[in-house]
Design goal:
about 210 residues, mainly alpha, 11 helices, about 85% helix
Length: about 210
């Protein structure tokens, strides 16, 4: 009975790729270019969440960007560029990640969405950090923290402060790193993020 159910389920849903292709065809039927583009981005993110960081993610991203361009949606294209940068970060192509991250930053400034701009600074900061550009990374995460404060995103402030603590430690400024780690630990404790609070304490002890 177990084998029969498994075979039945396999026939009904097919392989993961078959499901993706069905969803892709369904997305193409949407009337709005922006809706199509955002769903293509979401489909690419699902692939990544499943551990499928392949060229298809870039294909979906290209399709989405073309639709965002057609719709004149600068904010949508910004997010698309940011996601592409994270793709290259994951695949350890630092040069491409930085190039596209900088492109996303210029678009984000035109978009004007502070949350999105903060996320772009976050992605760019990680790329700069990986490349050993610590001073630039510190500036990017500093802008990220400032923007998150402006929109009252406390968790975002904590995350960016924690990244700045790591960078300060890498730059040899232990005192600054400790201060920032204490700051993010206090925020995590206040908002009930016990796991992240614990992570900060462990990092603090290791500094």
């Amino acid at each position: 009975a177990l084998d029969h159910n498994a075979n039945s389920e396999s026939r009904e849903f097919g392989s993961c790729e078959e499901v993706f292709q069905k969803v892709l065809k369904s997305i193409a039927t949407l009337e709005s270019d922006t809706a199509q583009a955002r769903n293509l981005i979401n489909l690419g993110e699902i692939r990544k969440d499943l551990g499928i960081w392949d060229d298809e993610v870039i294909v979906l991203n290209d399709m989405a960007e073309s639709l965002f361009d057609k719709a004149g949606d600068i904010c949508g294209k910004t997010e698309s560029r940011r996601i592409r940068a994270t793709y290259y970060l994951y695949n350890e192509d630092g040069d491409k990640a930085l190039k596209i991250g900088k492109e996303a930053l210029e678009l984000a400034k035109k978009c004007g969405d502070k949350y999105l701009l903060a996320r772009v600074y976050q992605t760019l900061g990680v790329g700069q950090q990986n490349a050993g550009e610590y001073a630039e990374a510190l500036k990017s995460h500093g802008e990220e923290a400032r923007l998150f404060r402006e929109i009252n995103d406390i968790e975002g402030v904590a995350l960016s402060t924690q990244e700045m603590a790591y960078i300060s430690s890498s730059m040899g400024d232990k005192q600054k790193s400790i201060g920032m780690m204490l700051e993010c630990a206090a925020i995590y404790k206040e908002i009930g993020e016990d796991m992240r609070y614990g992570s900060c304490i462990v990092d603090l002890c290791a500094t």
